[in-house]
Amino acid sequence: MSDNDLFPYIAQRKTSQGDCNPGEKQVGSKCVCMSPDEDCGHHTEDVCVYDGGIDNSVTMSQCRFLAERCQGTKQLQFINNGICNDVNLNWARDRKSLSTSSTKREECGYDFCYDWERCTGSQCLCLLPPQCPENNERLFCIKTGSSGKRRTVNLCSLGAIKCSKLKSELMHDGACEP
Question: Which residues pair with 76 in a beta bridge?
């Protein structure tokens, strides 16, 4: 699923009360995506985002991030408020990749929380692997710890393991062979 699929409100939508989504502005009776260049000239606070198109973290204004996310032309994923500093690009890549299979996409501040996260305030926090529901949806075979023991985990557990920075290596999609 691409970012374009995730933002169906890119097309104009009617509004009667000026209740546009973040990254949108009201034009007449419709909400349309803001232009990062034309509408974001005033300074707003910085955010750090992962740009999948260049495979790197970038600092940009909140306004530009929301406008570009609304337009859906860039592969942007929120990392944190403020400038980018000591970003774990491996986790940003893994989170972006895993998010396409997530059954949960809960809006949380400038971010969206996925199966392995919960929204607290306006921030996505990682679940611990034991907090994930046990199910057989979307299974993966991984090696864990220094012993390299193979085990089968679901998407939530894999995301929680990666998010918690526990040592693991993805072997393949599907359950481990006995």
Answer: 51
